[in-house]
What we know:
Its EC number is 4.3.3.6, 3.5.1.2. GO terms for molecular function: glutaminase activity; pyridoxal 5'-phosphate synthase (glutamine hydrolysing) activity. Pfam families: SNO (PF01174). In the presence of PdxS, forms a dodecamer of heterodimers. Only shows activity in the heterodimer. It comes from Oceanirhabdus seepicola. This protein has helices at about 10-20, 50-55, 60-70, 80-85, 180-185; strands at about 1-5, 25-30, 40-45, 75, 85-90, 100-105, 115-120, 130-135, 140, 145-150, 155-160, 165. The chain has about 190 residues and is an alpha/beta fold. It has one domain: Rossmann fold, CATH 3.40.50.880. A 7-stranded mixed β-sheet has the order 2-1-3-4-12-11-10. A hairpin with a 2-residue loop joins β11 (about 155-160) and β12 (about 165). It is globular, with a radius of gyration of 15 Å. The mean pLDDT is about 90.
Amino acid sequence: MKIGVLALQGAFIEHIHHLKKLQCETVEIRKVEDLNDLDGIIIPGGESTTMGKLLKETGIIEPLRDKIIHGLPVWGTCAGMIILAKENENHPIEGLKVMDIKVRRNAYGSQIDSFEEMVQIKEISPNPLHLVFIRAPYICAHDSKVEILYKRDGKAVVAKQENILATSFHPELTDSLEFHRYFLAMCCGKTN
Length: 192
């Protein structure tokens, strides 16, 4: 299996390390040609405004949007969730606009408001999961096609829509491989 990780900005190397631990071939996505022959793609956390501008400047935005619309599995973490969203409530950005969600950027506050917690998300793993929230967004509205997998204090922070997975936190900054395993199962068509 070959998974691309958008490597324009943000925490891409951490995702690559997790994928390699799962014996997965990885490609750093920096130009349009890097999108060829992928089984899935991860859009990492980082700075969503910068990431959106770089997606447009490199010419990746339209080909990637087309691949996702035609079924390429994609997972966005934190800023990646913002990039995937069709609408951003409090800060317009240049994004892919492929997931039927509206997100609130920096919803949990600034860098000093970052936090961690252990939770159970049965769709992802039977084991408790370590979640790291850093200037995290949350989903404030969604279409009925979107399945909410986890809410924190009533706010959706994990969602899935067909071939699209979005998390408002950073699984790549933990030792757990559970979210990456779940995404690889999506890429194999082994999740609902």
